[in-house]
Amino acid sequence: MITLYDAARCPYCARVRIVLGEKGVGFDVVEIDLSDRPAWLYEKNATGRVPVLEEDGRSLPESAVIMEFLEERYPEPPLLPADPADRAAVRLLVFRDQELTDPYYAFRRGEDEAGEQLDAALGRLDAILGERPFLGGTEYGLADIAYVPWLLRARDMLGVDLDGFQSLSDWLARLEERPAIAAEAGIVAAL
Ligand SMILES: N[C@@H](CCC(=O)N[C@@H](CS)C(=O)NCC(=O)O)C(=O)O
Question: Which of 14, 37, 90, 131 has the fewest beta carbons under 10 Å from its own?
Fold first, then answer.
């Protein structure tokens, strides 16, 4: 039995929700109020952050680690490429997610020049997607899932116009055809 300690607005939790959706894995949700987190959450994750995934009483924090765990626990459908070098490229993108998330949060806080920095980050993703259909290569997978929560929130919550980033917009439209991503877009719309 899997339990996800979750918060609807959290993009890191969104990664886990999407992977579980893609794998067709059922799970229980414990919604955490991030503005009033329960003390017991620190017993499951010393940082007190979500997501935390619990399987048979064992707690696992950190969205990137949870995504990899789910990929190994439920190999079908695969969300990592077969070739080790291609897998490494996916992991590198996930490892460097701050290249998008730092300017995203700076923009959300209204910091000076954050708009330009966010545009630069979107431009880098747009350039990657001009060369290949998905962030990880020819197939959809964990790299796309790692990034898409911030793109949905930038567009739908922060009002960021993605129209100038054609490849990125096309990629997002392709992703939103997938039920697991459409479900996440629905969660964002309801926030
Ligand atoms: N590195 C963590 C980051 C998780 C994270 O920052 N979660 C936020 C919600 S989106 C949180 O729990 N924030 C509460 C806090 O920072 O105290 C991951 O990838 O899971």
Answer: 131
